[in-house]
Write a structure and sequence with these properties.
4-stranded antiparallel beta sheet, alpha/beta, binds magnesium ion, 6-stranded mixed beta sheet, 7 helices, 233 residues, binds adenosine-5'-diphosphate
């Protein structure tokens, strides 16, 4: 059997907003989780339960108040702003509910934007990998279309490719189908599911859709600030 490496690990992870003030609220009370390479994990939980808070910490956009969180062996709490940015750039891809594409730029330019920012300009290999992924998601005829000329599903597929372009170990997707009709949502979900498997990337996806969650390798639920594994019946 191929050994699986640990991509995400949290131990006793707590998050308090407005820590040290009279408005302090502890949102995560001690989250222990582990995710291995290539796993596709759904995260469910009521609105306000702390799903985005957890994803922001795992995405090195925010830090734990207590406890630890590491991505591919790198402890987030130990990093300064530069280290966090480097970790994000090298190991993590993000997909949000809204695609956040730059409307005046083409599909291909949007996909290459993070690489362009990191390196100044994309290299030949970056462009060919971007085209390969765009073809994989069925956008080979859309490369030069402006983002605002594409459909919602096409825009979200572009955003997924953008998240994958720097060959991340981990993709964090916060309600990526939340803004699509159920059919394009299901298509976009299926595509992410297949690509995760093909590339061996770990996906953590927040969703409100129980049917989509049921198709994940594992389901984690956040409730009252604690994370529990949902066992398939
Ligand atoms: P979810 O994504 O599950 O809907 P969030 O992680 O966005 O939940 O929010 C969890 C709780 O933390 C909510 O009560 C929310 O109001 C609060 N919260 C989120 N972000 C902040 C912030 N920056 N400052 C203060 N409270 C916040
Ligand atoms: Mg949220």
């Amino acid at each position: 059997m191929v050994s699986r490496s640990v991509i995400v690990e949290t131990v006793g992870l707590k998050k308090t907003y407005n820590s040290g003030t009279d408005k302090a609220v502890e949102v995560l009370h001690g989250v222990d989780m582990i995710a291995y390479s290539g796993e596709f994990i759904a995260i469910i939980g009521q609105s306000g339960s702390g799903k985005s808070t957890l994803l922001n910490i795992l995405g090195a956009l925010d830090k734990p108040t207590e406890g630890s969180a590491s991505i591919d062996g790198v402890e987030i709490g130990s990093l300064d702003a530069l280290g966090l940015a480097k970790l994000r750039g090298q190991k993590i891809g993000f997909v949000f509910q809204f695609h956040h594409l730059l409307e005046e730029f083409t599909c291909l330019e949007n996909v290459l934007m993070p690489v362009s920012i990191q390196k100044g300009a994309p290299e030949k290999d970056d462009t060919s990998y971007a085209k390969l992924l765009l073809t994989r998601v069925g956008l080979e005829t859309q490369l030069n279309k402006r983002a605002n000329q594409m459909s919602g599903g096409q825009q979200q597929r572009t955003a997924i490719v953008r998240a994958l372009c720097n060959k991340p170990k981990l993709v964090l997707a916060d309600e990526p189908t939340g803004n699509l009709d159920s059919r394009s949502g299901a298509e976009v979900f299926a595509l992410m599911r297949e690509i995760a498997r093909e590339l061996g990337v770990t996906f953590l996806m927040v969703t409100h859709d129980d049917r989509l969650a049921a198709a994940a390798d594992r389901i984690l639920r956040i409730e009252d600030g604690y994370l529990t594994e949902v066992t398939n019946e």
